[in-house]
Amino acid sequence: MEEVRKKEGLTWFVNRPQVIFGFSPYSLMNLIGTLCVYAAICKHEGVPLIFPGTKAAWECYSIASDADLIAEQHVWGAVGPHARNEAFNISNGDVFKWKHLWKVLADKFGIEDYGFEEGSSCLRLSELMKDKGNVWEEIVKENQLQQTKLDEVGDWWFADVILGGEAFLYTMNKAKEHGFFGFRNSTKSFINWIDRTKAYKIVP
């Protein structure tokens, strides 16, 4: 790496996303796909869509990074002069609360009973979903989805980490000061990637 770094004209660029909203089945950090699978199982079993996290995560402001926005910053950093030898945050530029997005998720899967259970211990998807493989097989068959196994489309440990405490916030100020002004509406981003996951028949 040191020899490469010394090459004449070589520059580098780093971008630092937050929780990524995107379409990435089979990824080890696919939060939207994981939440969609959880919602599909709740719908199939006729149980409430309970928020699988802490009250702090439910109530706090959070930020996310749309996958297409990350790609836009990649292109900007690769071809433009303003990102040379710099590192930048990349997020949608707004904030959201999971208690608001949870209604969106419930609506997308036709679930009327949803929310955060006050006074209960933190629900962990890694525990709740460990015996749901057969249930997922039924859902895939009944809805003619792409053939997947539950552990291929549900990254429960990752959801447990993200929803297990208060979110970390940062700003896009440095990127803006250097000329990158891209942004996304996080609610619209969330909806878009749920719809994309459904369109590719990963979830019903």
Automatic annotation (TrEMBL):
The chain crosses the membrane at residues 20-41. SUPFAM superfamilies: NAD(P)-binding Rossmann-fold domains. InterPro entries: NAD(P)-bd_dom_sf, PRISE-like_Rossmann-fold. One of its GO terms (biological process) is lipid metabolic process. Keywords: Membrane, Transmembrane, Transmembrane helix. It comes from the Eukaryota. GO terms for molecular function: oxidoreductase activity, acting on the CH-CH group of donors. Pfam families: PRISE. The keyword NAD does not apply. This is Putative oxidoreductase.
